[in-house]
């Protein structure tokens, strides 16, 4: 996956140039090619592998929400963690995110799960692994994506100031353990999954805490209220 052939937003392309020329990325590209040649369906589509980065340039990052893997159902994943395409049923974890948002900010849950409105404001919705095989959860873990997304987090940690890291669940908290909490706000809570949301995700008030922190550092708060029509995102 050479830097010359990859389509990516320019600030990220420059910041991550050494990653794209590293052997592990070529190995990852080879792995994905073999998977496709063998007839396996990979989500999201290739043009959306880096959708989170394309929508949220490095200089605009103000919040990072970390996910783990793309959704592996047909038509769900489009490159943003927790987000699904318009018309797709809202996944259970996102339902719980909306519940907490309503409790925290009084925002009524939207009828869709399309989160590009957040991404365009500087919320980097980053999965740790950027591809998955259809109906095979975690099938692309350990193939190189984790190293790449570690580099993304490291760039934000080093080159940006006053960023909010929302780390939901032990996986996200381990992945971003190196983030400098003296320069950034690190918010931790259990994962919003129905299995764990009642253990402390509900009531965490991360959305209001994020905005208070951003405003205290002279940055515009995030408008967490999603448009009623996802096409207006």
From TrEMBL:
It catalyses: Hydrolyzes single-stranded DNA or mismatched double-stranded DNA and polynucleotides, releasing free uracil. Keywords: Cytoplasm, DNA damage, DNA repair, Glycosidase, Hydrolase. GO terms for biological process: base-excision repair, AP site formation via deaminated base removal. PROSITE patterns: U_DNA_GLYCOSYLASE. It is found in: Cytoplasm. It comes from the Bacteria. Its EC number is 3.2.2.27. SUPFAM superfamilies: Uracil-DNA glycosylase-like. One of its GO terms (cellular component) is cytoplasm. The active site is at residue 69. InterPro entries: UDG_fam1 (IPR002043), Ura-DNA_Glyclase_AS (IPR018085), Uracil-DNA_glycosylase-like (IPR005122), Uracil-DNA_glycosylase-like_sf (IPR036895). NCBIfam families: PRK05254.1-1, PRK05254.1-2, PRK05254.1-4, PRK05254.1-5, ung. Excises uracil residues from the DNA which can arise as a result of misincorporation of dUMP residues by DNA polymerase or due to deamination of cytosine. Belongs to the uracil-DNA glycosylase (UDG) superfamily. UNG family. This is Uracil-DNA glycosylase. The lineage of its organism: Bacteria, Pseudomonadati, Pseudomonadota, Alphaproteobacteria, Hyphomicrobiales.
């Amino acid at each position: 996956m050479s830097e010359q052939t990859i389509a990516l937003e320019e600030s990220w392309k420059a910041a991550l140039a050494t990653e794209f020329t590293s052997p592990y990325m070529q190995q990852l590209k080879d792995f994905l090619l073999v998977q496709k040649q063998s007839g396996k369906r990979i989500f999201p589509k290739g043009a959306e592998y880096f959708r989170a980065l394309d929508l949220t340039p490095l200089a605009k990052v103000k919040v990072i929400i970390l996910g783990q893997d793309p959704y592996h159902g047909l038509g769900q994943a489009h490159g943003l963690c927790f987000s699904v395409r318009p018309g797709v049923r809202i996944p259970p974890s996102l339902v719980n995110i909306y519940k907490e948002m309503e409790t925290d900010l009084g925002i009524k849950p939207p009828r869709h799960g399309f989160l590009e409105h957040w991404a365009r404001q500087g919320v980097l919705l980053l999965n740790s692994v950027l591809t998955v095989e259809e109906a095979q959860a975690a099938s692309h873990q350990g193939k190189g994506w984790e190293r790449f997304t570690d580099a993304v987090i490291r760039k934000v940690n080093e080159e940006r100031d006053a960023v909010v890291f929302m780390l939901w669940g032990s996986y996200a908290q381990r992945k971003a353990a190196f983030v400098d909490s003296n320069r950034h706000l690190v918010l931790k809570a259990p994962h919003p999954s129905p299995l764990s949301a009642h253990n402390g995700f509900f009531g965490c008030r991360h959305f209001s805490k994020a905005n208070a922190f951003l405003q205290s550092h002279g940055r515009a708060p995030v408008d967490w209220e999603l448009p009623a029509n996802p096409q207006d995102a």
